[in-house]
Specification:
Layout (H helix, E strand, L loop, with lengths): L1 H17 L20 E3 L23 E4 L7 E8 L7 E10 L4 E2 L9 E3 L18 E10 L11 H11 E11 L2
Antiparallel strand pairs: 1-2, 2-5, 3-4, 3-7, 4-6, 7-8
């Protein structure tokens, strides 16, 4: 009986991890039923390759992004940039939140008016340009439609921002890119 309980707990853990329900972990993660109904695009990612200009090997500014498909009831948006291939996962490069619900993109090197930034894995509240080493890396630009504004301060802790995003997420969209050293 104990063996079955342990096997069931292990299976549930694996299912939760591979389903993409959580990113940072902790008690609150993105619900599995948050629909992937938004589209995220960027003209700078030619064939989904991450240009060096937006990494530490170039100017290091954030790339321009565009999105569509936020559902009715969206009160604000959030953007999270992470490295799915980092040896210490997740490595978060950027969290922008309280983006206006009518906003459909971010210009290169800018944050939309009124939006705030949370600390990233480096401990700074700004875009941390990826610096790929040791092979191919996959970077994810995920935009979340939220049911409310988060009203957190600029520079809030990464896990605090992520937890608030997880609680308010009603839809999402993702753009994946790859880069090598």
């Amino acid at each position: 009986m104990l063996r079955r309980v342990r096997a069931g707990a292990a299976a549930l853990t694996v299912i939760t991890l591979v389903s993409g329900c959580g990113l940072v972990g902790g008690p609150t993660t993105i619900a599995a039923n948050v629909p992937d109904q938004m589209t995220v695009t960027s003209q700078v990612f030619n064939q989904h390759l991450f240009p060096r200009a937006y990494t530490c090997h170039g100017a290091g500014q954030s790339p321009s992004l565009h999105w569509s498909g936020a559902p009715q009831g969206t009160k604000s948006l959030a953007l999270l940039v992470d490295d799915a291939s980092a040896p210490i996962q997740p490595y978060i490069y950027w969290i922008v939140f309280d983006i206006g619900s009518q906003t459909t993109g971010i210009q290169a090197g800018q944050v939309p008016p009124g939006a705030r930034q949370a600390d990233n894995s480096k401990g700074t509240n700004r875009y941390d340009p990826p610096c790929p080493v040791n092979g191919l890396h996959t970077y994810r630009f995920t935009v979340y439609a939220l049911s409310r504004s988060l009203s957190l301060p600029d520079g809030v802790a990464m896990k605090t921002a992520w937890s608030a995003i997880a609680q308010a997420a009603i839809a999402r969209g993702r753009l994946q890119t790859t880069a090598s050293p």
